[in-house]
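Now read this:
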Amino acid sequence: MPSNLGAQGKAVIPRCDHVFPVGAAGGKAFGQLKAQQREKLDEINKEYMEDQKYRDEEDLPEKLEGFKNKYAEFDLNDQGDIDIMGLKQMMEKLGVPKTHLDVKKMIVEVTGGSSNTINYRDFVRMMLGKRSAVLKLVLAFEDKANGAASKPGGPPPKRDISSLP
């Protein structure tokens, strides 16, 4: 039995020259998967750009690009859908944590009960639609919060008696 002690009696970490193959969850394969998913989302965006129903939508290309990025960020299972955990994480990141049951209700509201996940078409339809889904309101609020000027820092300015109402 080989010893893990070196010539000076100190422990030696054995060297491993074996290279493990990288699965679909990492490395080059992961990058290719993400590129394929973005291409599919771009194709769907193109469909919306060509749809007469959305021709009057202001800043449609920019909105669709933003939707694509937001959607890809929370597609945690890399299957092209936002599942319950992805939506739950999205809501937590937006500062509006929801219970598991609330998240399920949101998915039913967006998909009409046809699925347990939100696909990109449902997501875009919800964001561009006239209905005010909870998720749409939260995402719109986040965009406004990110674009709004932050409160001034530091102590409030000194006031004298004449400036009081």
User: Anything to note?
Assistant: Confidence is low (pLDDT under 50) at residues 16-24. The two ends are 88 Å apart (CA to CA).
